[in-house]
Design goal:
With about 240 residues, the chain is of the alpha+beta class. Helix content is about 50%, strand content about 20%. The chain has a single domain (about 1-235), classed as Heat Shock Protein 90. It contains seven helices and eight strands; from the N terminus they run E-H-H-E-H-E-E-H-E-E-H-H-H-E-E. The strands form two sheets. The chain has a six-stranded mixed β-sheet. Strands 2-4 form a two-stranded antiparallel ribbon. A hairpin with a 3-residue loop joins strand 7 (about 220-225) and strand 8. It is globular and about 60 Å long.
């Protein structure tokens, strides 16, 4: 099983900029194209639903891309504010389950098995920025779901020490090779790597995940087997309430 080295590499800006242009144009073209098709007078109801789902998926991708760009800019200039509070794990898992179910419907992946395991104690909690923790988990859940064609996605939250928890997201998707793992969290992968040759918004979103984890003191470990799936494991640390 391969394990990510999670390091910083030299930025390869021209390659990244080319990929970013593609990531912006692709969803915009889909939104414009399918909006035009919806205006056609003889579009069937089945086609209308299909076109609306495509517009929804493309809009989500574009919103995610722009949000990531803004967050990266804030973190690069040290302008990202964090707001710590108690996050109750049972409620947090329920919220993430609801969000993932919406993603499943949007991407028409109802055939996947979605599982959530969390502490049953309603007072089990961590002290962190809930908005940013939700953002991290949402990105990882969506990536796991999007790149899984059979099987499913499982999120498990455990708490062995008060105010500290482990969040594990496991999927049975395409997995990654050792080279892709090594550059997984790098914003500008070298162009000769598989991730660099196929620059997608996924690369930016995972860079946001790593930078947010660093800001919150969360350690993240990735294990993956090509063709079998990926496990993302995060430890959210104890933080003394202010």
């Amino acid at each position: 099983m391969g394990q990510s080295k999670i390091n910083d590499a030299t930025y390869h800006f021209p390659n990244y900029l080319s990929g970013l242009s593609h990531d912006i144009r692709t969803p915009l073209s889909a939104i414009i194209g399918f909006s035009d098709l919806l205006a056609e007078p003889r579009v069937s109801r089945a086609d209308q639903r299909s076109y609306c789902l495509m517009i929804g998926r493309s809009s989500r991708k574009l919103l995610e891309l722009m949000s990531n760009l803004i967050d990266l800019a804030k973190m690069e200039t040290n302008n990202l504010e964090l707001f710590y509070k108690y996050v109750y794990l049972k409620d947090f898992a329920d919220e993430m389950k609801s969000e993932l179910n919406e993603m499943v419907n949007l991407y028409e992946k109802g055939y996947l098995k979605i599982s959530f395991i969390a502490p049953t104690n309603p007072t089990a909690s961590v002290f962190t920025d809930k908005t940013r923790l939700s953002q991290i988990v949402r990105i990882l859940l969506e990536n796991g779901m999007r790149y899984t064609k059979q099987g499913g996605v499982t999120m498990t939250i455990t708490q062995d020490v008060p105010l500290t928890c482990t969040i594990e997201i496991r999927d049975t998707g395409c997995g990654m090779d050792a080279d892709s793992l090594e550059h997984l969290f790098v914003m500008f992968p070298p162009p000769e790597t598989p991730l660099g040759r196929k620059m997608k918004a996924r690369g930016m979103s995972l860079s946001v995940v790593k930078k947010l984890c660093d800001r919150l003191g969360i350690t993240i470990e990735v294990n993956s087997v090509l063709g079998e799936g990926t496990v993302m494991r995060m430890v959210v640390p104890f933080k003394e309430p202010l």
